[in-house]
Every structure is written in structure tokens, then in C-alpha cells.
Write a sequence for this structure.
């Protein structure tokens, strides 16, 4: 019985997240359009509201092309690895108190593990496509994710120290429900490092080197078409949402808000995720891409030292005052 | 000359990345500004004076044929050489006058410079304001004399004015005094068009905004 209920919840979460992914693409196009004084999608449905559904149907019925010289099994598996890894990390996210599929004590570590696993999908896609653009995209993705994984992990160590737990629900509860007790304020440096690493980890502008359109056509997904391309896209957007959720849980106080919402306690959590998504899109509309060496410079020479300083400071404060 | 690639920043500006914040502020302001997109098939653009679109041969109301006198000036001036005229003479009926057997324009080669309309001494050819005449085949864009006359008839009918009243400003060469022009080219166009008070570029709205509803 319990397992059946869990299955129902999984299906509900899957559907909700997939709808969000579809409409995240719509809002991204719309917001970037308006920021560039354009309209964005307008033709399918009222103000283009059915555009994501039209896109989904289109990519579903498109031909799935596999290049002759591609490593066929790896090529076919790569997008699935990406998507599964990203979806798996949804399981540990606490949407409200008790609204979590798997309340495990290593939640944060699990999310890290899954997001690094997702980059395997990208690397394998780049390697299996047997094309120079895909290969370069895969290489870049590997280097980028490895460097930024470190700074991201280190930036959250401060949060772990303060909360004394890796369980995401526990981290939210440790922050309390007042505005000033959010970890955003004591962990300002950590948040700064986390935010930049989050952009890099999800391959978003200004760190979208693995899929830099201007140089690499479409990076690791160049050879993909139809539904498999769409799966990469979904994985990317789910990755954005997972990172936004981690940011919300670790720095913005999770589901706590100015007042409790009776019927839908996850409202504040969802609202904060939307805020993060807007930030992602806003930054994409504003900033140009980093050069490759600048990307590495920023990761290794600025973010990792900053995160280490943050850990030392947090640990000292914790030892002296708490 | 000294080029300053990067404006100088103090420490506080570097830490807070004020330039990035400025950029973000700009995009956020644009988010709430009105888009300039025109929803084309629903919203047609306003065609301004002097627009050069589909070609047409003006139909002479007296003869019912084109006004062309076969002087070949348009064919000579055309930079893309897309006009082909074959005149003939009917000595018994019209004396030494040239008549037009064939007048062809390859619209696919035309660059829409409007020189042909400007140079024509009798205002026989015109680039009308019609711009939607895309086609799936080439032959329908190789205009013959009959097609060009039909273009004119359609254009006048759509515009809903008498053919005699229509004045295309491209017929009047710019920057030439009135007395140097042939009779047909002394047309009543704006002072702005005749050349002395020509307004170009951004000033257009300033000069015309008052008397033309945009």
C-alpha cells in the first residue's frame, strides 16, 4: 500500500516537473524576447501559450537520426543517463515539511552525486557522436563540471556546518522561519560562490561553453535530433530547477515564508524556485559568454579560495560562539 | 589616440560587480518596455512616401495602352539590366512613332533602385507600393507588358483613386530645378521631395509626425 502511494506521488511529481520544464522554456523565450524588445512566441494559442506543447509534439514525431559512425549504444543511452540522473535528484527535495519522496540523511551529497552523474551523459554524448563539435563540447563540459563541482561542494560546507546535517529537511528546519535567520545572510560568501557555480554547473550563460552556439554549433547535442535532443533539453531544465531548489533549501529558508499558506504549503518553496529561474533567464539575457581560460581562472583562482575562506570563517565562528 | 578598453573601477565596484548590475538593470528596464515587433500578417506596415515595390506600366487613359515611347532610357539606366524592350513602328497608322511590342521586367533580378521611374520622360513605368507578390514559380515574376499593365490596374483599383490623380514621387528627380525637367516630370510633389528641404533618417518623424498620422 505504501509503495503504491509512493508510486502515485512519483507520478504526480514527474508530471508537475515535466509541465514546469515545458513552460520554463516558454517563459525563457518570452522573457528574453521582451528583454530584447521583441514579443517572443505569439502564434500558437493566446500569446503563444501552447508553444511548449507544440514543440513537444513536434520533437516527439521527428526522425531520430543516429550518425553512421556513432557509437550506437552509448549514443542512444547518453540522453537517458542525463535525464535519469537529473530526475533522481528530485526525489530528495523537500517541497514542504513532509513533502519529500525520500527523506534521506545524505540528501545534499545525493544531489551532488546525481548532478555529476548527469555530466557523464554529456561527456558520453560528446564522445559517442563521433563529431568534432560534440567532442569539444563534451571535453569542455567535463572540465567545467569538474572544476565547478569542487567550488560548489565547498560553498555548501558552510551550510552543512551551520545546520549540522546533510538532510535537506533538517537544513531548512535549522534555518527557522524568520527572514533574518535565512542562511543567505551569515553565508553571504557561500551564496555568492554557490550562485556562480550553479550557473556553471547547469551550463547556463555566461558559462555555456559546452553548448556555445557561436563556436560549437550546439556542443555535445549537435548530432542529436528529435526526442533525444528534447531529453537533453529537459535534463538541462530539470538541472536548473534542482539547483534552484538546492539554493532555496540551503540559503533562502526552503518552504518558510512570511506567512503559512494553509492548502499549499509548498507555495513559498515554488515561488523561490521561480525567482531563481527568473534570475537564470535574466542573466542569460544580459551577459556574454566567458572565455575558456577566464572560466577556469574564475573557478580555480577565485571561487575555490573564497569557498575555503568561508569554511574556515564559519568553522571558527561555530567553535567560538556556537 | 589613447584607447581606454576598460573604465577604471575602484575596489568596491569590483567586489559588487557594478557593471554587471548595470547590465542587469538595463535588461530589466527593457523587460517592461513596449516591444517594437510588428505582427506582420495581422498588422501591415505603413507604406511611406516613395516606397518602391512591384513594377507596373501606367495605362494611358486615352489609348488604353502603356505610355511608353520606346526611348530605352530605363533599359540603359537599369543597373541590373532586367528591362527588355522591343519597339516597332507602324508607318501607315502612327508615322514615325515607336510602339511597344514587348516590355519585359525580370522582377527577380531587379534591385528596386527606382532609376527607371526617375529617368522615364513620360512617367510610363512606376514602382508601386505593392510589396506582397511572392510566388511559387519564376514565370509569374518575369513580368510581360500585359502583366505590368494588369499590375497597374490592380494597384489603382486597390488604392481606390483615379489613375490621373496618382503621383509617384519617384517620377520627380530630386535636386533638379523645375525648368530643367521635361513637362511630364514637373509634378506637384512636396518641397521635401524636390530636394531643397530633403529630410533623411531620424529627422523624418520630427518633420512629418505633425501632418501624417503614424
Amino acid at each position: 500500500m505504501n509503495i503504491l502511494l509512493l508510486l502515485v506521488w512519483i507520478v504526480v511529481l514527474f508530471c508537475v516537473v515535466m509541465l514546469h520544464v515545458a513552460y520554463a522554456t516558454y517563459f525563457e523565450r518570452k522573457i528574453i524576447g521582451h528583454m530584447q524588445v521583441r514579443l517572443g512566441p505569439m502564434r500558437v494559442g493566446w500569446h503563444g501559450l501552447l508553444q511548449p506543447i507544440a514543440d513537444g509534439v513536434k520533437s516527439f514525431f521527428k526522425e531520430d537520426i543516429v550518425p553512421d559512425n556513432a557509437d550506437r549504444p552509448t549514443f542512444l543511452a547518453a540522453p537517458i543517463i542525463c535525464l535519469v540522473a537529473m530526475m533522481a535528484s528530485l526525489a530528495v527535495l523537500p517541497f514542504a515539511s513532509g513533502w519529500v519522496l525520500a527523506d534521506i540523511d545524505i540528501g545534499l551529497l545525493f544531489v551532488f552525486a546525481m548532478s555529476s552523474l548527469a555530466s557523464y551523459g554529456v561527456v558520453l554524448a560528446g564522445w559517442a557522436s563521433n563529431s568534432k563539435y560534440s567532442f569539444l563540447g563534451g571535453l569542455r563540459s567535463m572540465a567545467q563540471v569538474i572544476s565547478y563541482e569542487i567550488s560548489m561542494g565547498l560553498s555548501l560546507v558552510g551550510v552543512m556546518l551551520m545546520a549540522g546535517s546533510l538532510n535537506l529537511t533538517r537544513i531548512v528546519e535549522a534555518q527557522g522561519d524568520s527572514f533574518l535567520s535565512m542562511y543567505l545572510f551569515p553565508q553571504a560568501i557561500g551564496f555568492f560562490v554557490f550562485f556562480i557555480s550553479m550557473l556553471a554547473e547547469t551550463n547556463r550563460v555566461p558559462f555555456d561553453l559546452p553548448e556555445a552556439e557561436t563556436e560549437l554549433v550546439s556542443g555535445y547535442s549537435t548530432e542529436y535530433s528529435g526526442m533525444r535532443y528534447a531529453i537533453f533539453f529537459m535534463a538541462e531544465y530539470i538541472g536548473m530547477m534542482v539547483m534552484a531548489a538546492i539554493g532555496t533549501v540551503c540559503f533562502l529558508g526552503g518552504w518558510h515564508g512570511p506567512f503559512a499558506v494553509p492548502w499549499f504549503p509548498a507555495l513559498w518553496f515554488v515561488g523561490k524556485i521561480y525567482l531563481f529561474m527568473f534570475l537564470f533567464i535574466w542573466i542569460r539575457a544580459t551577459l556574454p559568454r566567458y572565455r575558456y581560460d577566464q572560466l577556469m581562472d574564475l573557478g580555480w583562482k577565485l571561487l575555490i579560495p573564497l569557498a575555503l575562506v568561508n569554511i574556515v570563517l564559519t568553522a571558527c565562528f561555530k567553535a567560538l560562539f556556537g | 589616440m589613447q584607447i581606454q578598453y576598460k573604465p577604471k573601477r575602484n575596489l568596491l565596484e569590483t567586489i559588487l560587480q557594478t557593471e554587471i548590475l548595470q547590465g542587469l538593470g538595463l535588461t530589466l528596464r527593457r523587460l517592461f518596455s513596449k516591444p517594437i515587433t510588428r505582427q506582420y500578417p495581422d498588422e501591415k506596415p505603413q507604406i511611406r512616401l516613395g516606397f518602391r515595390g512591384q513594377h507596373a506600366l501606367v495605362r494611358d487613359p486615352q489609348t488604353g495602352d502603356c505610355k511608353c515611347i520606346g526611348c530605352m532610357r530605363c533599359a540603359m539606366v537599369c543597373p541590373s539590366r532586367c528591362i527588355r524592350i522591343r519597339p516597332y513602328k507602324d508607318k501607315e497608322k502612327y508615322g514615325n512613332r515607336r510602339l511597344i511590342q514587348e516590355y519585359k521586367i525580370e522582377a527577380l533580378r531587379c534591385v528596386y533602385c527606382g532609376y527607371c521611374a526617375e529617368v522615364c520622360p513620360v512617367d510610363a513605368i512606376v514602382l508601386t507600393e505593392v510589396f506582397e507578390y511572392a510566388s511559387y514559380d519564376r514565370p509569374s515574376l518575369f513580368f510581360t507588358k500585359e502583366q505590368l499593365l494588369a499590375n497597374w490596374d490592380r494597384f489603382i483599383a486597390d488604392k481606390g483613386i483615379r489613375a490621373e490623380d496618382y503621383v509617384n514621387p519617384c517620377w520627380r528627380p530630386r535636386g533638379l530645378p523645375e525648368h530643367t525637367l521635361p513637362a511630364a516630370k514637373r509634378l506637384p510633389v512636396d518641397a521635401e521631395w524636390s530636394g531643397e528641404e530633403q529630410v533623411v533618417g531620424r529627422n523624418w518623424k520630427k518633420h512629418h509626425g505633425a501632418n501624417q498620422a503614424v
The interface with chain B takes residues 31, 33-39, 42, 282-283, 285-287 of chain A (CB under 8 Å). Chain A has two domains: 1-61, 67-321.
